[in-house]
Design brief:
Distance between the termini: 100 Å
CATH class of the largest domain: Mainly Beta
Radius of gyration: 28 Å
Number of strands: 16
Largest sheet: 8 strands, antiparallel, barrel
CATH architecture of the largest domain: Beta Barrel
Helix content: 10-25%
CATH topology of the largest domain: Lipocalin
Length: 262
Amino acid sequence: MKINKIIDLIFVSFLLVFTACDSIVDEQHLTDSTDVAGVELVTTQSTPGGNKITLKMASPGITGYWDYNLGKALTNEVTVVYPIPGKSTFTYVGSLGSKFFTKTIDVQIDQLDTPLDQDWYDLVSNNTSAGKTWVFDGSVGSGRFWWFMSPPGSPDGAMTAWWNAGDCCPPSDATGKMHFDLNGAANFTHYATPTATAEKGSFVLDPANKKLIITGSKMLGYAAGNADGVYTIVTLTPDKMVLYLSNNEANGTGWTFVFKPQ
């Protein structure tokens, strides 16, 4: 009988301890501060029709980011020097409180009156609508280093050749070309040979982070590329472009691509 009472006391003690440890839940229900129609997007241009644009989400209580096609700004207001003339659509992605939304706004750009970063001109030429064509800076048997295996992990070793693959075992598009232009959009076109059918895509140039991103098509020398199409810019001048992959999908090493204008 005494043992049963002791067991009962122990059970009650444990029950009290576990009851005391139960978390107190303060349920808070998210509510929307407005609806999508009530979200105010505002754009201003430094000059009428100019390409220096400020994008602003002006409604209080909304958080999100701007997608300005060539990058994203994790803020409600951003100023960009946009390189593409014509009508462009910019997207704000945000939260109303209980749900996410996207909303767009159009901007008409009639003149590139604010200079672009020099990398844009080096890549597509000063005639940004006409654009520029690039080819490999070398050919099979030339002894030049234009498509080669390099150390992985860092662009610091991009010009160190582990294997000069282009001189013996070139890619299938070694004699091809690629074209960049800003004629209404950031257009990229790949040709496997000088007379091959064009394969059209787009590109993003990120001068601040030294990145060139190809989407919807293939970079010249894609046999040693990556599916994500992200390349590090080692050199970009009017006469030379060197791109690097730190870990190419073909073999996990670095890989370096050297181009010249056609």
